[in-house]
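Q: How would the C-alpha coordinates look for this protein?
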Amino acid sequence: MNTPAPIRRALPADATVTRWPAPDGWLLRRFDWPGSGPGGILFQTGRGDVFEKYLETFEHWHRAGWSVTAFDWRGQGGSGRLAPDPHVGHADDFAPFIADLAAVWQQWNVAGPRVAMGHSMGGHLVLKAMLDRAINPDAAVLIAPMVGLKAPVGPRIGEALARIMRGLGDPARAAWKGNERPATRWKRQQLLTNDVSRYADEQWWYEQVPEIRLGPPSWSWLVQAFASTREQRSDSRLATLATPILMLVADEDGLVDSRAAVELARRLPNAELHQFGRESAHEILREADPVRDRALAVIDRFLATRLP
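A: Here is the predicted structure in C-alpha coordinate form.
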Protein backbone atom coordinates (compact mmCIF):
# COMPACT_ATOMS: atom_id res chain seq x y z
CA MET A 1 0.00 0.00 0.00
CA ASN A 2 1.07 3.60 -0.50
CA THR A 3 3.19 4.48 2.52
CA PRO A 4 2.53 7.89 4.09
CA ALA A 5 4.95 10.51 2.76
CA PRO A 6 6.62 11.12 6.18
CA ILE A 7 8.13 7.59 6.04
CA ARG A 8 9.41 8.27 2.54
CA ARG A 9 10.77 11.68 3.51
CA ALA A 10 12.66 11.00 6.74
CA LEU A 11 15.69 8.90 7.53
CA PRO A 12 14.90 6.15 10.06
CA ALA A 13 15.94 7.09 13.59
CA ASP A 14 17.95 3.89 14.05
CA ALA A 15 19.70 4.07 10.66
CA THR A 16 23.07 5.71 10.06
CA VAL A 17 24.43 7.69 7.12
CA THR A 18 28.21 7.83 7.05
CA ARG A 19 31.12 8.66 4.76
CA TRP A 20 32.79 5.33 4.10
CA PRO A 21 36.34 5.39 2.71
CA ALA A 22 36.98 3.16 -0.30
CA PRO A 23 40.44 1.53 -0.48
CA ASP A 24 41.76 4.46 -2.55
CA GLY A 25 40.42 6.95 -0.01
CA TRP A 26 37.35 8.06 -1.99
CA LEU A 27 34.49 8.80 0.39
CA LEU A 28 31.22 7.02 -0.38
CA ARG A 29 27.99 8.14 1.26
CA ARG A 30 26.63 5.01 2.91
CA PHE A 31 23.33 4.02 4.52
CA ASP A 32 23.07 1.25 7.16
CA TRP A 33 19.90 0.10 8.90
CA PRO A 34 20.62 -2.87 11.19
CA GLY A 35 17.91 -5.50 11.56
CA SER A 36 17.26 -8.43 13.86
CA GLY A 37 17.46 -11.10 11.11
CA PRO A 38 17.18 -13.07 8.81
CA GLY A 39 20.18 -11.56 6.99
CA GLY A 40 21.31 -8.56 5.02
CA ILE A 41 20.30 -6.79 1.81
CA LEU A 42 22.79 -4.59 -0.03
CA PHE A 43 20.70 -2.43 -2.37
CA GLN A 44 22.31 -0.36 -5.12
CA THR A 45 20.48 2.28 -7.13
CA GLY A 46 20.70 3.32 -10.76
CA ARG A 47 22.61 6.08 -12.53
CA GLY A 48 21.99 9.44 -10.94
CA ASP A 49 19.97 7.92 -8.11
CA VAL A 50 20.20 8.31 -4.34
CA PHE A 51 19.25 5.79 -1.66
CA GLU A 52 16.67 8.17 -0.14
CA LYS A 53 14.32 7.32 -3.01
CA TYR A 54 14.03 3.76 -1.65
CA LEU A 55 13.47 4.41 2.07
CA GLU A 56 9.89 3.15 1.75
CA THR A 57 11.10 -0.14 0.28
CA PHE A 58 13.89 -0.43 2.86
CA GLU A 59 11.25 -0.03 5.57
CA HIS A 60 9.31 -2.97 4.10
CA TRP A 61 12.34 -5.25 4.32
CA HIS A 62 13.44 -3.92 7.68
CA ARG A 63 10.05 -4.74 9.17
CA ALA A 64 10.72 -8.33 8.11
CA GLY A 65 13.99 -8.24 10.07
CA TRP A 66 16.47 -7.59 7.26
CA SER A 67 19.50 -5.39 7.75
CA VAL A 68 19.66 -2.96 4.82
CA THR A 69 22.78 -1.28 3.46
CA ALA A 70 23.20 0.97 0.43
CA PHE A 71 25.71 3.48 -0.83
CA ASP A 72 25.71 6.18 -3.50
CA TRP A 73 27.87 5.17 -6.43
CA ARG A 74 31.11 7.08 -6.79
CA GLY A 75 30.45 10.29 -8.71
CA GLN A 76 26.78 10.70 -7.81
CA GLY A 77 24.50 11.41 -4.88
CA GLY A 78 26.61 12.22 -1.85
CA SER A 79 29.69 10.32 -3.08
CA GLY A 80 31.46 13.20 -4.81
CA ARG A 81 31.74 13.94 -8.51
CA LEU A 82 33.93 12.67 -11.34
CA ALA A 83 33.40 15.65 -13.67
CA PRO A 84 34.15 19.36 -13.22
CA ASP A 85 30.44 20.06 -13.72
CA PRO A 86 28.70 18.69 -10.60
CA HIS A 87 25.49 18.29 -12.60
CA VAL A 88 27.01 15.73 -14.99
CA GLY A 89 27.24 12.01 -14.26
CA HIS A 90 30.65 11.01 -15.58
CA ALA A 91 32.74 7.85 -15.77
CA ASP A 92 35.92 7.04 -17.68
CA ASP A 93 35.56 3.40 -16.70
CA PHE A 94 33.08 1.27 -14.76
CA ALA A 95 35.90 -0.61 -12.99
CA PRO A 96 35.98 1.76 -9.97
CA PHE A 97 32.26 1.08 -9.41
CA ILE A 98 32.95 -2.66 -9.21
CA ALA A 99 35.94 -2.06 -6.93
CA ASP A 100 33.81 0.02 -4.56
CA LEU A 101 31.06 -2.60 -4.52
CA ALA A 102 33.59 -5.35 -3.83
CA ALA A 103 35.19 -3.37 -0.99
CA VAL A 104 31.88 -2.67 0.73
CA TRP A 105 30.82 -6.30 0.27
CA GLN A 106 34.05 -7.63 1.77
CA GLN A 107 33.73 -5.38 4.82
CA TRP A 108 29.96 -5.81 5.24
CA ASN A 109 29.31 -7.88 8.36
CA VAL A 110 25.79 -9.22 8.78
CA ALA A 111 24.55 -12.46 10.29
CA GLY A 112 22.73 -14.85 7.97
CA PRO A 113 22.44 -14.88 4.18
CA ARG A 114 23.56 -11.87 2.18
CA VAL A 115 21.51 -10.62 -0.76
CA ALA A 116 22.70 -8.24 -3.48
CA MET A 117 20.05 -6.12 -5.18
CA GLY A 118 20.45 -3.58 -7.93
CA HIS A 119 18.14 -1.27 -9.86
CA SER A 120 18.94 -0.23 -13.45
CA MET A 121 22.68 0.58 -13.62
CA GLY A 122 22.91 -0.95 -10.16
CA GLY A 123 21.51 -4.19 -11.57
CA HIS A 124 24.08 -4.20 -14.36
CA LEU A 125 26.93 -3.60 -11.93
CA VAL A 126 25.73 -6.20 -9.41
CA LEU A 127 25.58 -8.80 -12.18
CA LYS A 128 28.99 -7.75 -13.50
CA ALA A 129 30.48 -8.01 -10.02
CA MET A 130 29.05 -11.52 -9.68
CA LEU A 131 30.47 -12.58 -13.05
CA ASP A 132 33.85 -11.14 -12.05
CA ARG A 133 33.63 -12.99 -8.69
CA ALA A 134 34.02 -9.64 -6.94
CA ILE A 135 30.99 -10.43 -4.74
CA ASN A 136 29.44 -13.76 -3.77
CA PRO A 137 25.84 -13.21 -2.66
CA ASP A 138 23.60 -16.04 -1.53
CA ALA A 139 20.98 -14.59 -3.89
CA ALA A 140 20.55 -11.56 -6.13
CA VAL A 141 17.61 -9.45 -7.29
CA LEU A 142 17.97 -7.32 -10.43
CA ILE A 143 15.23 -4.72 -10.90
CA ALA A 144 14.85 -3.21 -14.39
CA PRO A 145 18.53 -4.02 -14.94
CA MET A 146 20.55 -2.02 -17.45
CA VAL A 147 21.39 -4.94 -19.72
CA GLY A 148 21.07 -2.65 -22.72
CA LEU A 149 20.24 1.00 -23.29
CA LYS A 150 17.07 2.16 -25.04
CA ALA A 151 18.75 4.11 -27.85
CA PRO A 152 16.63 5.92 -30.48
CA VAL A 153 18.97 4.64 -33.23
CA GLY A 154 19.69 1.22 -31.73
CA PRO A 155 22.62 0.14 -29.53
CA ARG A 156 25.19 -0.42 -32.29
CA ILE A 157 24.74 2.96 -33.96
CA GLY A 158 24.18 4.59 -30.56
CA GLU A 159 27.55 3.37 -29.29
CA ALA A 160 29.32 4.44 -32.48
CA LEU A 161 27.80 7.94 -32.29
CA ALA A 162 28.66 8.23 -28.60
CA ARG A 163 32.29 7.34 -29.35
CA ILE A 164 32.42 9.99 -32.07
CA MET A 165 30.91 12.63 -29.77
CA ARG A 166 33.28 11.68 -26.95
CA GLY A 167 36.21 12.38 -29.24
CA LEU A 168 34.94 15.75 -30.47
CA GLY A 169 35.32 17.60 -27.19
CA ASP A 170 35.54 17.19 -23.43
CA PRO A 171 34.53 13.57 -22.70
CA ALA A 172 33.11 14.74 -19.37
CA ARG A 173 30.64 17.19 -20.91
CA ALA A 174 26.91 16.46 -20.75
CA ALA A 175 25.58 14.21 -23.50
CA TRP A 176 22.28 16.12 -23.47
CA LYS A 177 20.57 18.84 -21.46
CA GLY A 178 17.58 17.31 -19.73
CA ASN A 179 15.32 14.33 -19.16
CA GLU A 180 16.64 10.81 -18.62
CA ARG A 181 17.21 10.21 -22.33
CA PRO A 182 17.21 12.32 -25.50
CA ALA A 183 14.74 12.22 -28.36
CA THR A 184 11.73 11.18 -26.33
CA ARG A 185 8.19 12.55 -26.21
CA TRP A 186 7.77 11.23 -22.67
CA LYS A 187 8.12 13.45 -19.65
CA ARG A 188 10.70 12.41 -17.10
CA GLN A 189 8.02 11.35 -14.64
CA GLN A 190 6.40 9.11 -17.26
CA LEU A 191 9.74 7.42 -17.94
CA LEU A 192 10.30 6.68 -14.26
CA THR A 193 6.96 5.99 -12.57
CA ASN A 194 3.20 6.39 -12.96
CA ASP A 195 2.92 7.34 -9.28
CA VAL A 196 3.02 11.14 -9.11
CA SER A 197 3.33 11.18 -5.31
CA ARG A 198 6.36 8.90 -5.24
CA TYR A 199 7.93 10.82 -8.09
CA ALA A 200 7.55 14.01 -6.02
CA ASP A 201 9.58 12.44 -3.20
CA GLU A 202 12.73 12.70 -5.33
CA GLN A 203 12.31 16.44 -5.84
CA TRP A 204 11.59 16.89 -2.14
CA TRP A 205 14.90 15.25 -1.22
CA TYR A 206 16.78 17.36 -3.75
CA GLU A 207 15.33 20.49 -2.17
CA GLN A 208 16.42 19.32 1.29
CA VAL A 209 19.90 18.18 0.19
CA PRO A 210 20.70 20.01 -3.08
CA GLU A 211 24.20 18.57 -3.43
CA ILE A 212 22.91 15.04 -4.07
CA ARG A 213 21.13 16.02 -7.31
CA LEU A 214 22.67 14.84 -10.56
CA GLY A 215 21.76 15.56 -14.18
CA PRO A 216 22.49 13.90 -17.52
CA PRO A 217 25.38 11.52 -18.21
CA SER A 218 28.59 12.49 -19.95
CA TRP A 219 29.53 11.20 -23.39
CA SER A 220 32.19 9.09 -21.73
CA TRP A 221 29.67 7.48 -19.35
CA LEU A 222 27.45 6.74 -22.33
CA VAL A 223 30.30 5.00 -24.19
CA GLN A 224 31.13 2.95 -21.10
CA ALA A 225 27.47 1.97 -20.63
CA PHE A 226 27.05 0.84 -24.24
CA ALA A 227 30.30 -1.13 -24.15
CA SER A 228 29.81 -2.71 -20.73
CA THR A 229 26.25 -3.86 -21.44
CA ARG A 230 27.24 -5.18 -24.88
CA GLU A 231 30.05 -7.22 -23.32
CA GLN A 232 27.77 -8.49 -20.58
CA ARG A 233 25.14 -9.71 -23.03
CA SER A 234 27.75 -11.85 -24.80
CA ASP A 235 29.59 -13.02 -21.66
CA SER A 236 30.01 -16.82 -21.73
CA ARG A 237 30.21 -16.84 -17.93
CA LEU A 238 26.47 -16.18 -17.71
CA ALA A 239 25.83 -19.89 -18.29
CA THR A 240 28.00 -20.83 -15.28
CA LEU A 241 26.48 -18.43 -12.73
CA ALA A 242 24.80 -20.73 -10.19
CA THR A 243 23.62 -18.00 -7.79
CA PRO A 244 19.81 -17.81 -7.48
CA ILE A 245 18.78 -14.65 -9.35
CA LEU A 246 15.40 -12.94 -9.59
CA MET A 247 14.98 -10.46 -12.43
CA LEU A 248 12.08 -7.98 -12.54
CA VAL A 249 11.53 -6.40 -15.95
CA ALA A 250 9.13 -3.70 -17.17
CA ASP A 251 8.30 -4.63 -20.77
CA GLU A 252 7.45 -1.02 -21.68
CA ASP A 253 10.58 0.42 -20.03
CA GLY A 254 11.58 3.61 -21.82
CA LEU A 255 15.12 3.77 -20.47
CA VAL A 256 16.66 0.30 -20.61
CA ASP A 257 16.24 -2.50 -23.14
CA SER A 258 13.75 -4.88 -21.53
CA ARG A 259 13.97 -7.40 -24.38
CA ALA A 260 17.72 -7.70 -23.86
CA ALA A 261 17.11 -8.31 -20.15
CA VAL A 262 14.58 -11.07 -20.89
CA GLU A 263 16.98 -12.74 -23.31
CA LEU A 264 19.83 -12.58 -20.80
CA ALA A 265 17.65 -13.99 -18.01
CA ARG A 266 16.96 -17.07 -20.13
CA ARG A 267 20.70 -17.73 -20.36
CA LEU A 268 21.17 -17.78 -16.58
CA PRO A 269 20.95 -21.33 -15.21
CA ASN A 270 19.32 -20.44 -11.89
CA ALA A 271 17.20 -17.37 -12.64
CA GLU A 272 13.55 -16.46 -12.24
CA LEU A 273 12.02 -13.81 -14.49
CA HIS A 274 8.98 -11.69 -13.60
CA GLN A 275 7.63 -9.27 -16.19
CA PHE A 276 5.34 -6.25 -15.91
CA GLY A 277 3.34 -4.76 -18.77
CA ARG A 278 2.15 -1.23 -19.52
CA GLU A 279 1.28 -0.76 -15.87
CA SER A 280 4.94 -0.21 -14.98
CA ALA A 281 7.57 2.31 -15.99
CA HIS A 282 11.28 2.04 -15.18
CA GLU A 283 11.22 2.39 -11.38
CA ILE A 284 9.26 -0.74 -10.52
CA LEU A 285 9.75 -0.38 -6.76
CA ARG A 286 8.51 3.22 -6.89
CA GLU A 287 5.46 2.50 -9.01
CA ALA A 288 1.79 2.74 -8.09
CA ASP A 289 0.68 0.34 -5.37
CA PRO A 290 -0.61 -2.52 -7.58
CA VAL A 291 2.79 -2.80 -9.28
CA ARG A 292 4.96 -2.10 -6.26
CA ASP A 293 3.04 -4.45 -3.97
CA ARG A 294 3.24 -7.22 -6.55
CA ALA A 295 6.98 -6.67 -7.00
CA LEU A 296 7.64 -6.78 -3.27
CA ALA A 297 5.55 -9.94 -2.92
CA VAL A 298 7.56 -11.63 -5.67
CA ILE A 299 10.84 -10.60 -4.03
CA ASP A 300 9.66 -11.75 -0.59
CA ARG A 301 8.63 -15.14 -1.97
CA PHE A 302 11.93 -15.50 -3.82
CA LEU A 303 13.96 -14.77 -0.70
CA ALA A 304 11.83 -17.08 1.44
CA THR A 305 12.17 -20.02 -0.93
CA ARG A 306 15.63 -19.64 -2.46
CA LEU A 307 17.84 -18.71 0.47
CA PRO A 308 19.50 -21.26 2.75
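Strands lie at 16-21, 27-33, 40-44, 67-71, 114-119, 139-143, 245-250, 271-276.

The chain has one domain: 5-306.

Upvote if useful.
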